[in-house]
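Regression test case RT-17, inverse folding.

Input:
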């Protein structure tokens, strides 16, 4: 069993390895801003297009401390199972009302989903689930 899967199981993520997930109607886009202000964008333009991931880190010139760096930017293409796993995470965070914060503050996460069904934005409290999600995201590089 992979480390990522064990973290998911421990923190309220998906629990079945290899479980199938229905395909999402396209186009879709997920924007996530972590507790430090780094941003991730995941998107899929159409049913025959690959899902893509982009990481845009905070750099020292734009950080509140003037010294923080979120590392190097990256982009990648997601395999179908990676996109499905990402959606399991996002759905789990967005659908759990106990994880929601009233407003965006340092340390919270912001998830914004845009799809043919509409748009939803949710601010996520600093919790074990948010920390686990933030730990998982770099694996999509």
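Golden output:
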């Amino acid at each position: 069993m992979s480390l990522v899967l064990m973290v998911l199981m421990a923190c309220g993520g998906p629990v079945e390895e290899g479980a199938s997930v229905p395909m999402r109607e396209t186009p879709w886009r997920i924007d996530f801003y972590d507790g430090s202000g780094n941003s991730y964008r995941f998107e899929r333009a159409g049913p025959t297009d690959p899902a893509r991931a982009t990481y845009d880190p905070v750099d020292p010139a734009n950080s509140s401390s003037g010294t923080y760096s979120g590392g190097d930017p990256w982009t990648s293409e997601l395999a179908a199972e990676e996109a499905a796993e990402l959606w399991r995470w996002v759905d789990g965070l967005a659908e759990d009302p106990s994880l929601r914060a009233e407003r965006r503050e340092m340390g919270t996460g912001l998830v914004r989903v845009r799809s043919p069904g509409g748009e939803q934005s949710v601010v996520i409290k600093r919790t074990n689930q948010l920390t686990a999600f933030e730990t998982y995201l770099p694996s999509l590089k």
